[in-house]
């Protein structure tokens, strides 16, 4: 498959312990896929294999026809695989606009032009404005990050990740730590992501998963138990017993 991310036979061993077992799946361009599973299922390991934090024992990771399995973390970001809450940390004393300006300047190779103001590039300022509009955070533009609610800070981190222009975006528990009164902001932001962006959502909040995902992969003990639509996953008795709980039985 040349259009999207393709994972073939991906495995990871730590000595005699196998933590990822022959994972084979695709993330087509524009797909919204959720990865769920009980604690210890291997979700974080899988994300770390995709981003280059861990090197696989075997298998391939192919993005738009390019094998990226041997690339470093930074090279994978440049190739188009980005993960929220990993690309950068927020500068809490800077405003939202100033935070967003930094990764764009770095991406465009303009961070070392000492005799020009950082806010003097009209194209970059226009891109910052578009990012804030896409995530509906324009009212926060000139507020210091440290004064924002936690859910708002998550949106700023998401905007920072989008600033590197990924082809595949991994959202690692985007609602973690966000109060229930603010979680709808995260859902709305995911729904507003570019339609041609492939999104992998690793999340325990099943309400969020069912609202935004068109496909769900269930991971158990480092292996894929099943993959299907939200309705197919809910209808699977084994998934309900292992993970979803009595409320979905």
TrEMBL record:
PROSITE patterns: ABC_TRANSPORTER_1 (PS00211), ABC_TRANSPORTER_2 (PS50893). Keywords: ATP-binding, Nucleotide-binding, Transport. GO terms for molecular function: ATP binding; ATP hydrolysis activity. It comes from the Bacteria. GO terms for cellular component: plasma membrane. InterPro entries: AAA+_ATPase, ABC_AA/LPS_Transport, ABC_transporter-like_ATP-bd, ABC_transporter-like_CS, BCA_ABC_TP_C, P-loop_NTPase. Residues 5-246 form the ABC transporter domain. Belongs to the ABC transporter superfamily. This is ATP-binding cassette domain-containing protein. It comes from Rhizobium leguminosarum.
């Amino acid at each position: 498959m040349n259009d999207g991310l393709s994972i073939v036979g991906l495995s990871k061993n730590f000595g005699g312990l196998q933590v990822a077992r022959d994972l084979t799946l695709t993330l087509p361009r524009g797909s919204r896929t959720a990865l769920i599973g009980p604690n210890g299922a291997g979700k974080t390991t899988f994300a770390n294999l995709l981003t280059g934090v861990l090197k696989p024992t075997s298998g391939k990771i192919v993005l738009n026809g390019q094998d990226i399995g041997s690339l470093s973390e930074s090279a994978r970001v440049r190739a188009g695989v980005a993960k929220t809450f990993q690309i950068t940390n927020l500068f809490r004393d800077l405003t939202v606009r100033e935070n967003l300006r930094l990764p764009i300047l770095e991406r465009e190779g303009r961070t070392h032009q000492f005799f020009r103001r950082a806010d003097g590039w009209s194209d970059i300022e226009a891109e910052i404005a578009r990012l804030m509009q896409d995530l509906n955070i324009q009212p926060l533009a000139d507020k210091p990050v440290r004064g924002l609610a936690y859910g708002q800070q998550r949106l700023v981190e998401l905007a920072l990740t989008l600033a590197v222009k990924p082809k595949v975006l991994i959202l690692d528990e985007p609602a973690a730590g966000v109060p229930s009164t603010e979680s709808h902001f995260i859902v709305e932001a995911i729904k507003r992501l570019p339609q041609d962006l492939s999104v992998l959502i690793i999340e325990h909040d099943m309400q969020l998963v069912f609202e935004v995902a068109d496909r769900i992969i269930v991971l158990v003990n480092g292996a894929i138990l099943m993959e299907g639509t939200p309705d197919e996953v809910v209808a699977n008795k084994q998934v309900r017993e292992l993970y979803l709980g009595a409320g979905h039985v």
